[in-house]
Amino acid sequence: MQHRYPVNLRHRDADLLGVNADRWVSVGVARAQDDVAAATARAVAEARAGRPAALVLVMARWDLDLGAVAAGAHAAAGGAAVVGTSTGTVFARGGQQAADVVVTAVGGPGVSVGTGASTAADPHARGVEAVTACGNAGRAHSTVLLLPTGTDGQQQAVVRGAYSVLGPAVPLVGGGSDGDMARRVTWQLHGREVVENGLVAVRLDTDRPVGVGTGHGLARTGEPMVVTDSDGLLVRGLDGRPALDAYLERLGVRAEDGVDAAALAPLGFAHPLALVRRRREEVRTVVGMDVAARSLEFVSEVPPGSLVSVMSGGQEDMLAGAVGACADAVAGLGGAEVAGMVVFSCIARRELLSHEGRLGEARAALSAAAGPEVVLNYSCGEIARVSGAAGCHNQTVVALAL
């Protein structure tokens, strides 16, 4: 499935935009009552403000009528590309306003957009098909936004598929859809269509760079270990020992103390593992511990032979990580003022910060770092690839600055 949306119309207020005369970003919000389509259309109209947009990015609460959301967005988009993702929690305008539907509109003469979608059963093929459909407008810079399902634990395979098409020069950024996790179903929007457990890709071709930043604020605990037995999502061995025993030892918990799975569960969010890469760590959330099998379960791939570390960090560290991600994204603009920002933050971070009542502070920190036109979506897995073929993250903040 493919759409291309070249936009070469100059913003009517370009002279007021200074260094951002080639692009603009604006946000609209809606509280969906009885007429979801109408509410969504109002949010799109608010974001566009009568301007021709290249992209309308919709984040909508997953329990809404998403077909009506897609219809309302398409009706008000004025020919712009419409893409979107289902979500459980999304904030607009510096994180100060929660909404049922949040719309980010992007336009200007320096922006062209192509979109694609795939529901291929194989996740690598999903990445290939969706990104190939986006095409290439031939501008100086390209960045691809990926909106994958958050249910299948295969986001790294999706990234590899996208990378096989795009190569190392095109950054990837995005976040996994939240949804009905009891049924393991999420949704994405592509034009008028609602895609179930698939992938939607957006290629942003621009005359000057956009910025991608990542941060988690966590630090390594103890020496790294080698994954010696794993099928990807289930790790059975670390350093040749039962994985759970080696993990608990790093945290000072003795396996012989007879702790049960319920008592261990909070440790998984507080102390994830991370794949140790050359320039960074890629965090992997521990979502299950099998006391009988002595194994660890993850939502993203932990391949055999990987070097991993147990990670730890407090509330202040997590807040600093979020601010750092936004700062790095802004730095990627090459000195231009940020017009707007889309931020993906892991739902695990939301849970950890909510326990200490720090969510409001976290949103305020993002607003201070990113400016008023910022959207914060809590995602199921985050994507940021700026070097190498890897780029799947958990418990991380990923920021796209425009």
What can you tell me about this protein's structure?
Strands 15, 16, 17, 18, 19, 20, 21 and 22 form an eight-stranded antiparallel beta sheet that branches. α1 packs parallel to α2, α3 crosses α4 (155-166) and α7 (315-331) packs parallel to α9 (359-370). β18 and β19 form a beta hairpin. The chain has helices at 36-48, 66-76, 123-134, 155-166, 243-250, 261-270, 315-331, 347-355, 359-370, and strands spanning 2-6, 24-30, 53-61, 81-87, 90-92, 97-98, 101-107, 111-118, 141-148, 172-175, 187-190, 193-196, 199-206, 211-215, 219-230, 232-238, 241-242, 273-276, 281-284, 286-290, 295-302, 307-312, 341-346, 374-379, 382-385, 392-393, 397-401. The protein has 402 residues and is of the alpha+beta class. The protein has two domains: 2-215 and 319-401, no CATH class; 219-312, Elongation Factor Tu (Ef-tu), domain 3 (Beta Barrel). The radius of gyration is 21 Å and the shape is globular. Residues 2-19 have low confidence and may be disordered. It has nine helices and 27 strands. The longest helix is centred in the last third of the chain and has 17 residues, at 315-331.
Outline type: globular
Class computed from helices, strands and strand pairing: alpha+beta
> β content, as a range?
35-45%
Number of helices: 9
Helix content: 25-40%
Q: How many domains would you count in the coordinates?
A: 2
Oligomer category: single chain
Which residues form runs of ≥5 with pLDDT under 50?
A: 2-19
Q: How many strands, what sense, and barrel or not for the largest sheet?
A: 8 strands, antiparallel
